[in-house]
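User: Modeling request: complex.
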Amino acid sequence: MDLSLIAEAVVLGILTGAVYALMASGLTLIFGVMDIINIAQGAFVVLGAYLSYVLAQHLHIDLFVGLLITMPVMFGLGVFVEWAFIRPLKRDRIMLSILVTYAIAIIIEGLLGRIFSTDLVRLDAWYATRSFNLFGFYIGYIYLFAFLLSVVLLGALYLILYRTKFGASLRAATQNRTAAQLIGIDVERVSALTFGIGVALTAAGGVAFGATNSFNPGSHYDLISRLLVIIVLGGMGSLGGALIASFGMLVIEDVTAVVWEPKWSTTVFFILLVLVLVVRPQGLFGQLAGRKE
Amino acid sequence: MLEVRSVSKAYGGIQALNVCSIGIEHGKITGLIGPNGSGKTTLFNVITGYERADTGEVRFNDSAITNYTPDAVFGLGIGRTFQMSRVFPRLTVVENMHVATPQHGGLGFFRRWSSSREQQHALELLEFVGIAHLKHMPAENLSYGQKKLLEFACILIAEPQVILLDEPAGGINPTMINHLAGHIRTLNQRGITFLIVEHNMEFVMGLCDTVNVMHRGETIAGGTPAEVRNNPAVLEAYLGD
Amino acid sequence: MLATVVKYRPFAYLLLLIVAISMPWYAPGLFPGISVMSIAVLTVIFAGAASSWNIFSGYTGYIALGHAVFFGTGAYALAIICQDWHVKSDYGPMMLLPIAGLVAAVVAVPLGLISLRTRGHTFVVITIAMFFIAQLLAYNLRAVTHGSAGLELPIPSWSGDAFDVPFYYVGLLILLLTLATSWWVRRSKYGLGLLAIRDDEDRARGLGVKTGSSKLLAFVLSAFFVGMLGGLWAYYIESVFPNSGFDAIFDVSTALMAFLGGLGTLAGPILGALILVPAQQYVAADATLTSWYLVLYGAVFLAVILLLPEGIIPTIRKRLTRWLARRAAPAAIAGGPPPANQRDPVSAATRDGGDR
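Assistant: Request completed. Predicted assembly structure:
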């Protein structure tokens, strides 16, 4: 058992875990405030990746610099989607929101397929293919940059949540939507903005994802399935849970690939979820369903 | 018949029930009053298994039923209603009734949900509470008061020995309240024991044989309505908050 | 007039049944140039799948998005049995379908026990996770499933124009069985318990409904039928692969069909399948349409959800009831709220709500 291989897998897991944490945090935040699962989150990531692709290929804008454009655009898109398609849902929200966001995901997939074809592409930059040497491992620069991006954005998210008035409203709405309304918080506005933030984060996730994987419009299925596992494992609505689950799952997955076989690493991902949920149906940091009144 | 012995329950830092003890006599109508937050609903929840007690015991007919699940408690013949009346919104009134009809073993896979005898019984009860004319209406279309009556009727169809009512008079008009009091008396004469949580003093004092008062998670007084009305500790509990 | 409609309902069903049974005779003539019968086979298979999904998700309200697990399990089970027992005869595999269903039902027991400990969104996600596990197992357990090489099923001896017909009838039979079960459940005390679980599970439990075993039984029942249909489908396509037997689209399609027609109704899933399967087949046939197809599909999907949130049949039923109520104003019509102008003294006290 080559310890250095395992160590390398752990490091890689942590680095990629940060990227998934970024995407998952948006997803869990949306759930916390609006009580819906945004199945289109994966598709938004892919969309973000394609947007960065266009900016890089045609306008020669660096991937990270391009975020200054793509993130606001995606934010606006998110707010629009929430207002147009999710706010009207009144009854059976669980079922309908899943179907609605799934519909949005396939619309995005179809549009992207129309515009870009289904060929695999990859985001390119000098740092996407070069690596540097850290304690004997070779780590791609892109992973480091993506990790730093995630840290910065998650830090900014933390500041918003805990140091701004909006953040306080958001957290209140997550804890108790009705009570928040009663004390004058415009829950609908908070929902729209939260959805916007969640989608804006996917733009950043898109850069990281697109530079480290080849993708095409259909890549969102695999992505969303992993993100769902992560947020459920961490406990839906819990940001800390999403972070821990992201790192945990990615590290376990990468280590399994090294210690056992790569073909089983993804399966382990899902099996672990099932195991955790058997013992703790609400995930690591989530809350139990069921009302006692 | 139903006894709560030294039950305590805390949520986070709040002590909802503090070594609370209460006894309900067979065949009587017992009232439970107290300012908001005194733990009345929590006590109900603990008795009927919707919440677990941290310490203490609940006894029914001399056997311990502490921390039994809600369906087990219901199976013993203890029924309850909820403060915010709970009905099955998408089922019709009569379907709501049939959910509660006694299930004798199995899952009822091979039984139609309304045998003619059960149907008869359900309609009688709906007549009794006065909403029989609405039997095919989806429960969600009922008014607040009608939902309370439906909830009450659902409990009755299971022929319980004890009924716990959580604020039955809340939010309904005086005529209705009198009807309700009348129903309760009639049923009590047929042998059903009642424990009623209420804020409406007239209702409680006029109906109950015994009244208990709770404050901050414990019982501070008990006795006939007259005794309780004149008890200084009770007055203080209400005014002090 | 509502009474008249209700009285003639059984005749309408009989007529539909006759139309369905005699399809192979008139359909190819009606739609020349399209392989109608193959669309018909897939339609009955999906209608059956959507109906049996409905027995669980429609009645209990637990949205399961992993039923493809059972479809694929049934498909693989049949393929493996046919291989190991050297089943060759044309109707042999058909007769083994109940075993495929049984395998799926047995698999459903542990899966159900695990997943039904959760509720709401968590339940949805855990069913999705189980689906991916099943698909991954199909890829990785090569000894049993041959991995991505897939498995083959015996090829029936009937061919040509009449190839689809036996499949159609068997599919129709399974569909009718599923419908009968769904209908029976709906009128039983058990089914009422399921609906109560959907509306308020904790209260249902508090009133004596055995929620745990009720949910599990519905789950296993729906798995049984879906498993049989998976087997039939595999035999029809003559092969099964990890991503065809376990197809994520299957889950969403069946959910959409049931939902489109009306979740929890009997005819809803069938109506949904009748609309969606031919549409899907039509577009799938033309490869260049695929991307537009997705956009269109998604857009229609969205429109339906936002405009008909309850599904077609319940919406029609409500509109019809309201229309009939308006035509017969004084009489009390079942299912609608009482007209505001109705005030009779006897029930006034209670109808006012007894509210303040």
